[in-house]
Amino acid sequence: MSMASLLPFFLLLLLSSVADAQPSPGYRPSSSIAPIRFFDGYATLWGAQHQSISQDQLSATIWLDKSSGSGFKSKRSYRSGYFGASIKLQGGYTAGVNTAFYLSNDQAYPGFHDEVDMELLGNVAGKPYVLQTNVYVRGSGDGRRLVGREMRFHLWFDPTAGFHHYAILWNPDEIVFFVDDVPIRQYTKKIEATFPQREMWIYSSIWDASSWATENGRYKVDYHYQPFVSSFTDLKIRDGLMSPSGNGANSRGLSPQQSNAMKWAQNNYMIYYYCQDNTKDHSLTPEC
Fold first, then answer.
1. Per-residue model confidence as pLDDT tens digits over 66-84
2. pTM
3. Count of domains for the chain
4. What pLDDT is stored for residue 8 in this prediction?
5. Is residue 219 part of a domain?
6. Residue 229's domain is classified under what CATH number?
7. Coil, strand, or helix at residue 24?
8. Looking at the domain assignment, is residue 1 inside a domain?
9. What is the dihedral of CA 155, 88, 225, 220, to 10 degrees?
10. Is 150 an active-site residue?
């Protein structure tokens, strides 16, 4: 086959590669916030023996084995703000393992709590991690009906090869989930009852979620592969209102460039959206 005949094929590959490349969101909120030392913002919540803090307190490593997982929690609560961490995950067989970075007030309002989740769900070797985002409002469990608002993604990079930044921006009328400053989901307040408004704390944890995390519980944690290790660095907290687009503290919503980046992420990497799930009772999620 001549080079001339191969040229269209190579052009197609090049265009496909460009189309799949991560678009620039235009504004990178994480770059405007300095990292904090671990003990300035957080305290160990459980599994202290499964946790290691770097000498400079800028990094934390937590792990899960058959005896325990581990978690840490912010020292104080917040009513709005930007909360982020760079996370590196373990490769290989990680089915059933849940590495979570989230906001919650479960300990203050047990059985009637709010929660905003970013959960990195492990998988069998050779299959990608799943990033699940979720919003609970005033109750999940303890006899109440579980009303999750899940949106799940595959990632456009290998989360085990290096650190990537995961963040939640929470304002009184919108929540934006970011991955490497690309907004992947925007959840806005359409109805008071469907939006979290009480104070929440920031949590990070690694735990055994075998009952549901990987293909609805089909694959469980296999402790032959223990320990399962997740590393955190570049911990960031900014209290108070913050524009997701960088257009001033009182500015709401995404810029056109950010909106296009979010469409790219959802069109190419979203694998589940609760509003599109016909098996759900959408009377419980009127925002759909």
1. 999 999 999 999 999 999 9
2. 0.91
3. 1
4. 43
5. yes
6. 2.60.120.200
7. coil
8. no
9. -40
10. no
Q: Does residue 18 sit within a domain? A: no
User: Which residue among 115, 174, 192, 199 is the active-site one?
Assistant: 115
Q: How many residues does the chain have?
A: 288
The pLDDT confidence band at residue 7, using thresholds 50, 70 and 90, is: very low
Residues 6+ apart with CB under 8 A from 271: 130, 152, 153, 154
- Residues 121-132 have pLDDT tens digits of 999 999 999 999
CB distance 133 to 177 below 8 Å? yes
121 touches 98 (CB < 8 A): yes
* Residue 266 to residue 268: CA distance in whole angstroms: 6
171 within some domain:
yes
pLDDT band at 114 (very low <50, low <70, confident <90, very high): very high
119 is catalytic: yes
Instruction: Identify the domain containing residue 127 by its residue range.
Output: 33-276
Query: Which one from 119, 174, 199, 287 is the annotated catalytic residue?
Result: 119
- How far are the Cα atoms of 93, 105, 146, 204 from residue 194, in angstroms, in the given order? 36, 16, 13, 24
In this predicted structure, what is the pLDDT of residue 145? 57
Closest among 16, 14, 24, 9 to 261, alpha carbons compared: 24
Q: Note whether 81 and 91 are within 8 A (CB).
A: no
